[in-house]
Amino acid sequence: MLEMIKELCSLRGISGRESEVRDYVISKIDGYCDYSVDPLGNIIAFKKGKNRAENKVMIDAHMDEVGFIVTGVDSDGLLKFSNVGGVDTAVFLGRSVTVGENALPGVVGIKPIHLVDKSGENDLPQKDELYIDIGALSREEALKAVQPGDEVCFEADFEQFGDGFICSKAIDDRAGCAILIDLIRSELEYDCVFSFSVQEEIGTRGAAASAFTAAPDYAIAVETTTAADIYPAEDEERVCVCSEGAVISFMDRATVYNPELYRLALDTAKENGIKAQTKTRVAGGNNAGAIHKSRGGVKTVAVSVPTRYLHSPSCVCKYEDVESCRALIEALAAVMAQC
Amino acid sequence: MDVSHVRSILETLCSKGGVSGLESDAAEEAANMLKKYMPVRRDNLGSVTGKKGEGAGVLLDAHIDRIGLIVTAVKKGGFLKVAKVGGADARVLTGAKVTVHGKKDVFGVISCVPPHLAKKDSENKATAFEDMTVDTGLTFEQASEIISPGDRITVNGSFLELLGGKIASPCVDDRAGVAAVLRCLELLEGKETCPIEVVFSSQEETGGSGALAGAFASEADTAIGVDVTFASAPGVSKDIYGSLGDGALVGFAPSLDYEMSKELMRIAAENGIKAKPEVMGGRTGTDCDEIQTSRGGIKTALISIPIRNMHTSVEVCALEDIEETARLMAQYILERSGGNA
Question: Where are the domains of chain B?
């Protein structure tokens, strides 16, 4: 899976522009399942297991990543842009990005610190002051290379480092995509539906449609979630912890999880000797929020990879936690199919 | 204009570390490049110095150090506490990928502090240096084995080509200046010149000690410092500052030699070299401030190369401006030597 995560993370796919990721996923699952692409661009895949499932189980991961979209070009050739999904200004000032279908390099400019008042040296610029510099010196020159509506991604720069960690843009949620692909390419105990959904980052829009179409009884949202296990945070401040395994949420901003399923997920992990933990903070949200409200309601759990610095160009997670998530999801899907 | 030489020098230099006080690999590379033209040594403060010819001549200076961070402590979970070296900018460091130059180079990420761990009133503020940590992904034991307080940290970044051949890279400040000096020497190759001394100074970003010592040790009576300056951009007014592509920006300031500044402008005009004046009201904030008052005084001029996003890992420059700076210095030296291009 590691190589697949690396390849997936290097693809460019802000919300609504998931085609590179979709093509990659299809290239990997073709021949291992029946799949179709729905009107929004979600991939819905049916994987036949060794046995027929009593309950229909859907496993979802989202293909899109956070980034930006070009909104206009100023008279000096600098690009104005809007965020796509939640991105803190602090994580992209003075960074390189790629713009448009041809991945033209650009940089997010900033007024030099030397010219900033000492009292405001840590103040971040306001959103309307931000711009991307592609090296053009006039609007005319810029418009030859870039158009409003072009997508902007963080520069792809995958690293393996430290004690089994990886660092990249878009680990949210390409790690999830890799887990789903790997499951589809393996032999499963029971029939299962998979959803590679679009537009999670702008409000879980794709999964709402794919859940309606798939009409599952049970669902697993496969995600990444904030690990705040950085110095000097202690205990529950850390929310969840890298190297302690799959994260199972009891509640976040979008979903109050079914308590029996939450318990079932923890028990399944324990019975199978899979590392798992919960989140010690009610924060964030994911496709479970859309899926559990689909049709007459879907019993849903979220299984997430604990990940530091989400929504930045430098998401950090431990690869062994991705493996724990994969193992738990496989085991849990089999239990859900027959409960 | 052929900027391929300048590009190749700059690309090589920008790939090196060399945070102030530990200019190591950057200085070594610069020394290697310089020794094609003159005998070279490293002085007691780490600067690279060289001299061609005997007696008093022209000193060319550019600084070889770069801003960065320095490890102050290794903490639980392999996180590092750090301090800034030179005028590093906290606003561009959250989530930045870095290299920790320990016993071996180690990859790291500057931690992003989640809102629930952030200090009160920190909304829309960058993490201050005192709260900043670097995530090495190592255990405390592993990190302590490789990394010690005092190790330097550089921010990663690639050598990116933007539209129109502009370059974005870390440490264009002041590898662009070093590249201009080296290119100037290349342009002068095979020509009779007055004595030329070169100082690729250490520790400019931390106060200019390298230039101070380097100028003292030289015999030069005149000096030209080459550094970068602000190029116009949002928040950097065109009315005050030059722009990318303006060529060599010739400094005019009370601390600089007025006759030399005028001479450089005249030479540029007569030789079709792109140049513009850049005016400062006192000192220059560059090595020139140290060089000017060295020994009994050295007549000093400053040529600046305009860059955007100074002190970030995406300092943007136009290679043509480096080439014009090299040409202007070469022509100045030729005229002083009584020859012509």
Answer: 4-66+170-336, 68-155
